[in-house]
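input
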Amino acid sequence: MFRLLFRLMLIVVVLGVVAVFAVGYRRIGSPSGTVTPVDHGATDTGASRIGIDAGDARRAGAEIAGKVAESASRAGKALEESKLTAKIKSKITLDDTLEGTDVSVSTEGTVVTLRGTVLNRKQHQRVRQLAEETAGVTSVRDTLQEGR
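output
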């Protein structure tokens, strides 16, 4: 019974919101309640009638566009860094000569940092080589420790 009552109330609320929206939409435009067609050739866009300064709107739009572009650039950089890190981690994981190592890889820009431990000098050189030969890497910071 409660479910039925709840559903009925929900339907009434939704219909009420739709009705308020429809009535409000019809009243925009002119005092008579009819919708006024927009003349795209006119210089008055209607913004001044509702108190919006077009210059302010343009400046705000340009500011928002700049922030979006900056965020997209940062996201692209982070994606590139993640790709480099993933490539190097994959190479290390798939290399059979590097079993028993505990290496973490981080990337900042095109600089890769290697941390952790390797069993011996040969593994140390191999991990560094894999990182250096990865396309897109400009330098490698090596803080690996040999032996456990």
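quick obs: The beta strands are 102-108, 111-118, 139-146.
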